[in-house]
Amino acid sequence: MPSQKVRLCFLAVCIFSLTHQVAPITVGAFNIQHYGDTKQTEQGHDISRVLSHYDIVLIQEVRDPDHSALNELKNLLGSTAWDYVSSNPVGRTASYKEQYVFFYKKASVRVLGNFQYDDSGKDVFEREPYAVNIQYTSASRGHAVNVVLMGIHTQPDKASDELHALPTAMTAAKAHFPSAAGVIAMGDFNADCSYLNNQEKATLPLFHDAKYRSLIADTVDTTTATTTDCAYDRIVIEGNADIVADSAKVYRFDTALGLNYDSTRAISDHYPVEFRLN
After folding, report:
1. pLDDT tens, 156-195?
2. pTM over 0.90
3. What are the disulfide bonds (predicted)?
4. Whether 98 is catalytic
């Protein structure tokens, strides 16, 4: 018979194991629609509630070059627990540029570096993709995994051209971070309805080449308007078996947070898309 001391030690080990299990991290991509000082003042509280659902989340259509709105949003989330990394403003015209911004929980994710794709030679992208190399503890692998998250917001009328070029940008990001298990491109691809028809989509390797995994189905509606049903926002993975991703879906933040239609539309015309890294 084991001694009382041995039984107590065994029980303590079991309790420690149960309370220190590694949980999957939740990753999102959210086009907030013209995010800046005005939107932060008027909808910042609800936006912080949406972002707090994630361990790391890409936000798009950010127009905040002095980071005043972004820092207010970080304070709402909790400045000691959260941080963010931002691209420089990108876009062809001086009058309209956007930033890609990744907000993340410091306890869940380490950001090891960032990468701005250089498209100056061919100039295919209106807003060149921006990537971060992150590290998280994989619940299924039982060790740390590095993966590159790449944000893109295509120019709607050039969605097909930009999505044809996106694999080249993903390859460049993987080369920049060779220790990463792969690249996950996500964001507002404008990959549906009038911006990308089925014939155009059939020519895109992102959706048909076996080396890529597209996590958001064509039948999903990523828009908040009642008059549209379009899978604009997408998540595409290129990587090895260390990337274990599941539970991809649209996050209906209106339902989750009890927001009415007008409040939802005031935040964005898009829902976030999300998945879990295990």
Report:
1. 999 999 999 999 999 999 999 999 999 999 999 999 999 9
2. yes
3. 193-230
4. yes
